[in-house]
């Protein structure tokens, strides 16, 4: 018999939340949130070091090509994923709820990419972004994948704010042993397949390029309305002859016109580049029916809110601002041998704390360098097929922007609103 004793600590502790903000050249009414968790079990090679590396590579690439952006990009490394059950993203959603509702075009979540010998592609996506996710996989791999609605996991903290989700999955097959090292001490960096990591990063590059640079955001409002109708149909079927719920009856009545209204609104998007124009279109198309629908169907609120693309700002942070919490993952996974990366550090009030250079010899992820050049090509031609790798991918990655941080830059918030200590810079 084995007797095991454990000691569990509960309580509150400050956590660092690193956020990088990359602004479009002209003030944008909308933004795309790109997030992945920073904490890990044991070494965390594929969960989540590889994803953190891809996030940094893509942040650098989009920053280098920011003149082509039509929307702001906010990149966040979430703390408290496991032990706080999505504490970092929950904190962000709570503190910036209004801004997310006003400006949030999409939430792109990245998790567990780069698994060696991964073979199966799939997507977890809101109905509005399912088409984009599957199209990106099809263009990048030539494969037809399947999509499912998001589960209540993996930092899906933004449903209540009405921000639709896109996540691309690339998994190992069960007959190959599956993801056997997940959340174990064996999740070391040798479990990262460089070619797989490169391919997965390219897919995210393509999806983000579409969301950030397409004249009309690739969001399918009609698909959202149709998915909602299917949900209501299931509810009616489940209730059988007892379908007398007032909210359900009202929702059923309004659904008759909602799909047509969504089609009209979808067509207006191209003529509503500004948030004020789009606000007016939403009010004109949805009108009282939209308000009544929201009041009677709580689960419909997030779906209808995903139709909104409005103005406002989330916290300022020009260029790349990375906190101390992400240094280790960046140093171990983000840069190939011999490469160096600079970080502009600032406290919570935006006061510069200096610049730090990090070099890593511990892992070779040079395949990510090709993604930097890929982003540049995607910003020119977002429909470029990913499986025809451009010749530019053999060049060195663009150098980090050497310009000083802008006056309006502020450091990424911390989960406990605690300023970074100067001696940590």
Give the tags.
alpha/beta, 425 residues, globular, seven-stranded mixed beta sheet
Task: Describe this protein's structure.
This protein is an alpha/beta fold and 425 residues long. It folds into 2 domains: 308 residues, Aminopeptidase (3-Layer(aba) Sandwich); 85 residues. The chain has a 7-stranded mixed beta sheet with strand order 1-3-2-4-7-5-6, sandwiched between helices. The C terminus is likely disordered.
SSE diagram, text form:
Layout: E1 18-22, E2 31-37, H1 45-64, E3 72-78, H2 87-95, H3 97-103, E4 104-109, E5 120-125, H4 127-141, E6 146-148, E7 165-171, H5 194-213, H6 221-239, H7 246-268, H8 275-296, H9 298-305, H10 327-334, E8 340-346, E9 352-359, H11 367-380
Parallel strand pairs: 2-3, 2-4, 4-7, 5-6
Antiparallel strand pairs: 1-3, 5-7, 8-9
Quick structural gist:
The protein has 425 residues and is α/β, with parallel strands linked by helices. The chain has two domains: 18-216 and 316-424, Aminopeptidase (3-Layer(aba) Sandwich); 221-305. It has helices at residues 45-64, 87-95, 97-103, 127-141, 194-213, 221-239, 246-268, 275-296, 298-305, 327-334, 367-380, and strands at 18-22, 31-37, 72-78, 104-109, 120-125, 146-148, 165-171, 340-346, 352-359.
